[in-house]
Specification:
The chain has about 400 residues and is an alpha/beta fold. The protein contains 12 helices and 18 strands. Helix 9 runs parallel beside helix 12. The chain is globular and about 75 Å long. The termini are far apart.
Length: about 400
């Protein structure tokens, strides 16, 4: 097994001032290519610490991907740390320097002297191209380890990993066949509830069942070698049966993307009106390219379910939409929804504990409930259920 590690650098990452999305993305890409990440760590903008970590990890890892610290400022120390760890000097990469100067000239700007630093790499290192930024990456051998240094800007980093690093790894190593990962996302059932039914099932040898709770959804994952695919599919069918109607999607598609695909296939358009979710539902649907005819955000106001149904019909009629989906406001810990369709209109009111979670989590949950209501109608199943721990206190169909 090839040992692949990641080192994120920067005080802002170490101290939690920014979320390290690069690490999560890299872990997924490596896994898909048969190179599961063995470990990852973070260090701040301290030269001695960087040199120490590079020296230590280079004696353990086969591959180390270092992220960040290639900018033009004094706290960008990755190139200098790499040179010190290898006992070599920094040298100017003239080809990259010329490319940077041209980059600024094309934009009518003079390159600052501080940017010259971004063309300095350790003597003997291999330069890695960066077609979308000014920081070149580089690769070098240190002890037993092949180390890749990448910029921290996500757009630049991802291009470098995909176009520069992965092809080199595939050329040097005989990579194992990528493992299989089956995914299923549920809404409305708790993690312990699902696990109580799944855990007694006998797993195929070498296969691992995993759970990830991320309010308001639970993701189920089955990981194993490709050679076990047939047995994994048989086990997975049992998981599907247990999850039942709480399954909102399989794979990586996501519920908004699923709704976009289903509505487009049927030639439907959707109008949305929100109170409690304050535009979050519209944003999630629009980001997935759901065919939207109209959308509005209204101040919270108490409404009967009949009034919500009437408003959903009116919204569909005035916007020319096939469907209308409404989210009401919260009053006395109760919140209403309405869905108008060519086959009829539904409304429901649920009891919602406003003190259990933060506002963002509650809004995410309500947006999911509204989308799930639409999903269930598209699937021909009862729309006024499927919320699990959230109690439905009133329903109406008209």
């Amino acid at each position: 097994m090839i040992r692949v590690e990641m080192l994120a650098t920067g005080d802002e990452v170490l101290h939690g001032q920014i979320v390290d999305t690069n690490a999560a993305w890299l872990a997924g890409v490596l896994f898909e290519n048969g190179l599961p990440m063995t470990s990852r760590q973070t260090t701040g903008d301290n030269l001695d610490e960087l040199v120490t970590v590079l020296s230590e990890r280079s004696k353990v890892a086969d591959v180390l991907i270092v992220n960040g610290g290639l900018g033009p400022t004094s706290d960008d120390l990755s190139a200098l740390a790499a040179a010190k760890a290898a006992g070599v000097k920094l040298v100017m990469h003239q080809e990259w320097l010329a490319k940077m100067e041209a980059f600024f000239a094309e934009r009518g700007r003079k390159m600052a002297d501080s940017n010259r630093k971004q063309a300095e790499i350790p003597e003997g290192a291999e330069m890695l191209d960066n077609p979308v930024g000014t920081a070149c990456g580089f690769a070098m051998q240190l002890n037993r380890c092949w180390i890749f240094f990448t910029p921290g800007v996500p757009s630049e980093y991802k291009v470098m990993v995909e176009e520069q690093i992965l092809p080199r790894l595939k050329a040097r190593f005989d990579l194992p066949e990528p493992p299989v990962c089956l995914r299923l996302t549920t809404f409305g059932r708790g993690e312990s509830d699902l696990a109580a039914e799944i855990e007694p099932l006998p797993l195929p040898e070498g296969v691992v069942m995993g759970y990830r709770a991320s309010m308001p959804i639970i993701e189920l994952k089955l990981n194993g070698p490709a050679s076990k695919l047939v047995e994994m599919e048989q086990f997975w069918q049992r998981v599907r049966e247990i999850a039942g109607e709480s399954t909102i999607f399989e794979g990586m598609e996501g519920l908004p993307a699923q709704l976009a695909r289903r509505l487009s296939e049927k030639g439907y358009t959707l109008a949305v009106s929100e109170q409690f979710t304050a535009g979050l539902l519209h944003w999630q649907l629009a980001s997935a390219q759901v065919p939207l005819a109209a959308g509005n955000v209204l101040p919270a106001q108490p409404e009967s379910l009949q009034a919500m149904i009437e408003r959903s019909r009116q919204l569909a009629a005035t916007s020319g939409a096939s469907l209308a989906l409404l989210v009401g406001g919260i009053y006395d810990e109760q919140l209403g929804f309405a869905l108008h369709t060519p086959e009829g209109s539904w409304a429901q009111r649920v009891k919602f504990n406003v003190n259990r979670h933060g506002l963002k989590t509650r809004q995410d949950t309500v947006a999911m409930m509204a989308q799930n209501m639409l999903r269930r109608w598209l699937n021909g199943i009862e729309v006024s259920t499927g919320h699990g721990w959230i109690d439905v206190v009133e329903t109406l169909k008209d």
